[in-house]
Amino acid sequence: MTGDSAASAPGRTGARPERPVGRKSAGSRWARILEGGLLQGGVQGSPVLRLLLRWVRRPLLPVMRLWRRNIQLKVVATTLLMSLGVVLLLGFVVIGQVRNGLLDAKVKASQSQATGGFAAAKQRADEAAAGTADDGTTVDDRSEQNVTSWMSDLVSSLSSGGQGAFEVVTLPASTGSDTGGRGRRASGDVDPTASVPEALRERIDSATGAFQSYTRIVYQPSAQKDSQPALVIGKQVNDPNGDPYQLYYLFPLSQEEKSLSLVKGTLATAGLFVVVLLGAIAWLVVRQVVTPVRMAAGIAERLSAGRLQERMKVTGEDDIARLGEAFNKMAQNLQLKIQQLEDLSRMQRRFVSDVSHELRTPLTTVRMAADVIHEAREDFDPVTARSAELLTDQLDRFESLLADLLEISRFDAGAAALEAEPIDLREVVRRVVTGAEPLAERKGTRIRILGDQQPIVAEADARRVERVLRNLVVNAVEHGEGRDVVVKLAAAGGAVAVAVRDYGVGLKPGEATRVFSRFWRADPARARTTGGTGLGLSIALEDARLHGGWLQAWGEPGGGSQFRLTLPRTADEPLRGSPIPLEPKDSRRNRGLNDAGLPRGGGEKAATVPAQPTGDQVTPMTSRDPIAPRGTAVPKADPTALPGNGARVVPRPASTARRQDDAPGAEGPPSEETGRAEESSKHGEASRGR
Amino acid sequence: MMAFMKGRVLVVDDDTALAEMLGIVLRGEGFEPSFVADGDKALAAFREAKPDLVLLDLMLPGRDGIEVCRLIRAESGVPIVMLTAKSDTVDVVVGLESGADDYIVKPFKPKELVARIRARLRRSEEPAPEQLAIGDLVIDVAGHSVKRDGQSIALTPLEFDLLVALARKPWQVFTREVLLEQVWGYRHAADTRLVNVHVQRLRSKVEKDPERPEIVVTVRGVGYKAGPS
Predict the structure, then answer these.
(1) What confidence tens digit (pLDDT) does each residue in A585-643 have?
(2) I need a surface site. Which of A407, A483, B184, B228 has the fewest CB within 10 A?
(3) C-alpha angle with apex A33: A32 to A35, nearest 5 degrees?
(4) SS3 track for A316-360
């Protein structure tokens, strides 16, 4: 038992792995995919990879969050992307059409031009051949010079037909001898070999028809002209000597290219405008819808925060206006119902409070009368004397009940005020233990205090804390069946804790949560031999809650129970964990004794305060927790320190009930000491304490 | 001892049964009770009976207990113990501020009530002549007077006791609990608001500037002590 005081600072290490990286519910499928795959670090095995992913993920997270949270951004971005796609597609189609149209016309004109040129070249070759035959000179003699000059003439005459509209190039047929006469020639400074693609030359070599191809006209370096795109049409033609050579017509396409780029530019500009405009339109349109939705969301938040008079502004009759109207109607009904309920509960609380107060005056009279009779009981016959004793005892009980009822009604009314100041819990514990000693002696129980070597200081209301601890200790002694009761103190992180452990009958499955209910008794059939009001633990729970602390129970059938009070060290600091584990180290489960005929699992050991809203389920404990956590999970605790769940704020238990089979304080023959303890609990509300 | 304890107690309570029962208990303890059930008649009854102590129910027909308390306090320093069914902070503080020395919450045990009454009357047992100085005040314990520059300051017995307790040990810081025990006679921790309220009342009478007390000095986080003489 001593060993388990090891406390670690709550809420540091344990928190990380459980915290969801992002809200999974929100976000589109893409976001989920991204999150699940890339961001969530789907790769489990490699720590390096995970580290890398985390590193990549970190700067992305704000963007992802914005993306998930902002529907306007989503719609605008989607619209932009889609309209960009449409515009691009459209642009490509249009440009393709325009290019085809332009080129078709050009090709047709060029082809007819080239055909004419080829015919003219053939004709001139025939004429020249006829001319030379008439001269009767030997072909071999003249041919070299004649053909050379003839070719030059041919090129210049052919090219003179279209000034700049086309260029003419002759190249030797690769099959023929590459002599100077039939060598390369070109009009207008065109580099003949570079301008005609090799593939075309090969095709013309291999066949007799005219062929065409696209190329770039490359000019001689001396011309200092940029190359330009062109259509080239070529054919093999014979020179006057009957030798083949290749004649090419090159039609520059710069005009067409200019037109095309103009179209492209126009389209791009128009497209850009369209995209931007569409984005802006989407933004505006979405804003029209989103603004009321956001307003509704904001108002809903304020409504839920308790400002019930908030309403939406409704203009027009469109769907948004209908949303607003419906919303307002809902808010109004909600407000009405809440007010009704509040009125009802206020009335009820005041009734309880009034009844309690009205009861007090006659009770005071009765009490005093009973005491007077009690004092004089020695003069009575035995029956009357015993009656006087019973009267006094039951009046004590009645008084405690009334005081507890009043205290509960004060909590219910929210009228309980915390008067917190730094106190040393050790002193409170010692006072409580001293007060419980007489009862413990009668029960044969020894109360041990652990962890009181150094001060355990917390900002707390000493009166309330003492009341809670007295309740726990007296309960433990009552149910400890004569075995030791251990009170343990610990402080760690921003929390202090006191755990009261007994080794008595313990708690049955599910009881650990129910012990805090009002008037709850473990065994209804069991005679109420012991006193107690049935409200002690409910009040203790409210006291803990008022401090922003936790009061939790753990127990196993036959293995005893442990009640743990955890308080924040400073009054307004939220609790993140408890320095003492809820399930003690010497529990049967922890000692591996659970096989001793006792069912494991189920909710029997886990114990929490009724319906604590923080659902941080850290340890295996949680799976057995009978109460599903409500609300959003927040505070995390060191798993070793917090084997149950804990809550800073505990919702009020709705029903009535009570711990096990009795209450603190009173039982059969009350000794002077218990009487005093009980009385103080009774007068706790009087803020007189004891 | 019993002779000292004897005292006239005025019970101001509209509940006749309780008043009668209180009478039985008080007589049994050797007090001389007298009764008044109406807040409007309380002051007249007080003047007539000249009680040593007043038991005052807070909820009364006619003038309520707070008002009665204020009226009595205006003309007398006689100890007033409130009977209240409500122990809420505001009620108790208002009662104490209106001049009550102590309060007791219904339902109470007769012994408890008698103990309170005795504690309030106990002061008549200490007639030892003694002169004390606190700040620029001179206290004559036996003569039950407090003077500043020869000018007498009127204090209720409780306020006087409080001042004397502080003045007797000017070197000591008194916690509220210790003062409760010494001045009010509580054996275990009780409502420290009693101390707070009465220190405020005392200051309003003895301090030159109650905002900056020099006679009864607050020691933050601990309690109170007497100012330097």
Answers:
(1) 888 777 766 544 444 444 344 444 444 434 333 333 333 333 333 333 333 333 333 33
(2) B228
(3) 60
(4) CCCHHHHHHHHHHHHHHHHHHHHHHHHHHHHHHHHHHHHHHHHHH
Q: Is the Cβ of B28 closer than 8 Å to some Cβ of chain A?
A: yes
Q: Report the candidate in A212, A207, A136, A150 with the shortest Cα–Cα distance to residue A182.
A: A150
Q: How far is A352 from chain B (nearest CA, A)?
A: 13
Minimal C-alpha gap between A399 and chain B (Å): 7
pLDDT, residue B20, reads 92
* Residue A297 contacts B, CB cutoff 8 Å: no
Structure tokens at A148: 């050379």
Give how far the C-alpha of residue A130 lies from the chain's centroid of Cα atoms, to the nearest Å. Answer: 95
B16 touches A at CB < 8 Å: no
Determine contact, residues B207/B215, Cβ cutoff 8 Å: yes
Residues in contact with A145: Cβ distance below 8 Å, sequence separation at least 6, in sequence order: A181
Q: Which of B224, B166, B168, B215 is nearest to B196 (CA)?
A: B224
Instruction: For residues B155 and B137, give the distance between their C-alpha atoms in angstroms, rounded to a whole number.
Output: 13
Average pLDDT over residues A250-254: 84
Work out how many CB contacts closer than 8 A connect A with B. Answer: 72
Chain A contact for B101 (CB, 8 A cutoff): no
Q: Please state, rounded to an integer, the average pLDDT across all residues of chain A.
A: 74
Q: Which CATH class is domain A308-415?
A: mainly alpha
- Give me the DSSP letters along A468-498: HHHHHHHHHHHHSTTS-EEEEEEEETTEEEE
Instruction: Kindly indicate whether the domain formed by A419-686 is annotated with CATH number 3.30.565.10.
Output: yes
Contacts of B25 in chain A (CB under 8 A): 368, 371-372
Share of chain B above pLDDT 90, in %: 11
What amino acid occupies position B107? P
pLDDT-derived band at A219 (thresholds 50, 70, 90) equals: confident
Is the pLDDT at A674 greater than 60? The verdict is no
Kindly state whether A361 is in contact with chain B, defined as any CB-CB distance less than 8 angstroms: yes
Burial label for A104, CB within 10 Å (0-12, 13-18, 19+), is exposed
Question: Quick one: closest CA in A to B110, which residue?
Answer: A368
- Please report how many Cα atoms fall inside a 13 Å half-sphere around the Cα of residue A323, on the Cβ side: 14
Q: Please tell me the CATH code under which domain B127-226 is placed.
A: 1.10.10.10
Identify the CATH number of the domain defined by range B2-124: 3.40.50.2300
Sorted by where each begins, the domain ranges of chain A are 2-71, 99-259, 308-415, 419-686
C-beta neighbour count of A465 within 10 angstroms:
26
User: Cβ of A418 under 8 Å from any chain B Cβ?
Assistant: no
How far from A637 is each of A460, A574, A607, B76, CA to CA, in Å?
A: 22, 12, 16, 61
The secondary structure of residue A40, as a DSSP letter, is: T
| Residue B163, CB-side half-sphere exposure with 13 Å CA sphere | 33
Q: What is the ipTM of this complex?
A: 0.79
Q: What is the dihedral of CA A223, A225, A227, A230, to 10 degrees?
A: -80
Which of chain B's residues have a Cβ under 8 Å away from the Cβ of A394? none
Assess B217–A contact: CB distance below 8 Å, yes or no. no
Residue type, B6: K
pLDDT confidence bin for A45, thresholds 50/70/90: low
Contact list, A355 vs chain B (CB under 8 Å): none
Q: Find all residues with CB under 8 Å of B186, minimum gap 6, and list them.
A: B119, B180
Q: What 3 state SS string does A151-203 have?
A: HHHHHHHHHHCCCCCCEEEEEECCCCCCCCCCCCEECCCECHHHHCCHHHHHH
Picking from A357, A361, A464 by the largest number of B CB atoms within 10 A of its own CB, the best residue to mutate is A361
- Asked whether the beta carbons of residue A415 and residue B88 sit closer than 8 angstroms, the reply is yes
Q: Where are the domains of chain B?
A: 2-124, 127-226
CATH C-level class of A99-259: alpha beta
- The backbone region for B98, taken as left when phi is positive above 0, alpha when psi lies in -120 to 50, beta otherwise, is alpha
Q: Closest-CA residue in chain B for A423?
A: B221
